[in-house]
Amino acid sequence: MQQPVIATFYDHILDISKQEGCSVGEALQEAKKLGVAALEVSCFNTAGRAEELSHELASAGLGVTTMPAFFSFESDGEVENRAKGIFEDAKAIGAKTLLVIPGFIPEGEDPEECTRRRIERTKRLSELADREGLALTMEDFDNESSPIATSRGMLRFMDAVPGLSACFDTGNFYFAGEDALEAYERLRGRIGHVHLKDRALGTDFGTEQRRTTSGGPMNPSPVGAGVIPMRELLDRIRAGGYRGAYTIEHYGAGPMLECLKRSVEWLVQRL
Question: What is the spatial distance between Cα 56 and Cα 24, in angstroms, rounded to a whole number?
Fold first, then answer.
């Protein structure tokens, strides 16, 4: 059986470049040496430089898994206007899937009405993406103003939007106080992408400068070195039939290169 693709974020490559004092090209090569075969490249990364970035990745021999795409969905026209540029950038870098972040609920606004509005506009985005040959996925986004911070929030969107799959982020349910194993069972059979993210209580690997909704510590960690039940989650994800890429994530980590090395080694041993 072919080994799954191991990926990480282009943002992490930029962190490696800064922390290690090397060029972005050299950081890309370091990641490739570790076993990274593809990157997750956001709409912020591609803004104004999609073609240049595409050549950069091609020169390094790295592919693209998904493209995180941030939307506000505050007006009907925003869907079409925002989607057009994102679709163009996704095609330029070779992304076949958009990880859609549908926006956040502003303070003082009715959460239910905001959520309904975002669901309807995600449906419209799905229609537009389908015409362009692009798929949509959605993760448990770790923000208290997000309507998709929990598995139930994600399911509400997926039940309403045809073709929308779950991006299962192993570490983000921890933010909302939800058990990741229970969340997996709710989302079983609907997972189209995976983020491997662990969480540390201490700051040995850097600090994210954020806390859980209950006020607990939430810091970066190499995969398998934190408090998330990564081994059991990976076993269940694989047993459930998932054969897609695994994107290693640890925003705020330092040193990023060492964390990535440890994460890749942990994952390779278990694939």
Answer: 9
The single residue listed with the structure tokens 């408090």 is: 227
As a whole number of angstroms, the distance between CA 24 and CA 10 comes to 10
**Domain boundaries defined on the chain:** 6-270
Q: What's the start-to-end Cα distance of the chain, in Å?
A: 10
Per-position DSSP letters for 58-69, written without gaps between them: HHHT-EE-EEEE
Give pLDDT tens digits for 209-253: 788 888 888 899 999 999 999 999 999 999 999 999 999 999 999
Select the CATH number that applies to the domain covering 6-270 from these four: 3.40.640.10, 4.10.240.10, 3.20.20.150, 2.60.40.10: 3.20.20.150
- Residue 260 in tokens: 């990535």
The token pair that represents 131 in the structure block:
């015409």
What predicted TM-score, i.e. pTM, was given to this entire model?
0.94
236 φ, ψ (degrees, to nearest 5): -70, -40
The tens digit of pLDDT for each residue in 85-106 reads 999 999 999 999 999 999 888 8
